[in-house]
Write a structure and sequence with these properties.
The protein has 4 helices and 7 strands. It has 148 residues and is an alpha+beta fold.
Length: 148
């Protein structure tokens, strides 16, 4: 985790792409893996709505399930000041730890986790009957490392 931020949030958000919680998370530096990799008309839930007094069922499609991930460390490339990144630690000591020095073995500095990358995301099929009214969202996330 980056400080006190949560790296990955998954689940049934009960809202489609572009709605309140997802937009707020986007503003905080998160990326929606579903929106990034799966075309907009691919739903994660289907609902059959019966129209009263008619012999008709209306099938509605929704994208309610999401995997959102923090794609960069809090404070990097966001314009936030350094105090927010180090959260009260001695800034000079933190900079020395991040920049590192050439050790006896010839390695330079420390690598730190700077975010996540989503390599792929999909909506899995085959769970619509006898399991859940939601279809699972599956994503492959990879840690990104670097020197800050």
């Amino acid at each position: 985790m980056f400080g006190k931020a949560i790296d990955v949030v998954v689940g049934d958000f009960n809202e489609n792409d572009g709605y309140g919680a997802l937009e707020w998370l986007k503003g905080q530096g998160y990326t929606d893996a579903l929106a990034e990799h799966v075309r907009g008309n691919r739903e994660t839930m289907r609902a059959h709505v019966r129209i009263p007094l008619m012999q008709h069922t209306w099938e509605r499609h929704f994208r309610l399930d999401h995997i959102v991930y923090l794609n960069r460390a809090i404070g990097s490339s966001t314009g936030q000041n350094e105090d927010e990144v180090v959260r009260g630690k001695d800034k000079r000591k933190e900079k020395e730890e991040l920049s590192g020095s050439v050790g006896e073995e010839g390695s330079v500095g420390k690598q730190i986790m700077i975010g996540w990358r989503c390599d792929q995301c999909c909506v899995m099929k085959g769970f619509e009957t006898c399991a859940s009214d939601h279809q699972p969202v599956l994503a492959t996330l990879q840690m990104r490392f670097g020197r800050e």
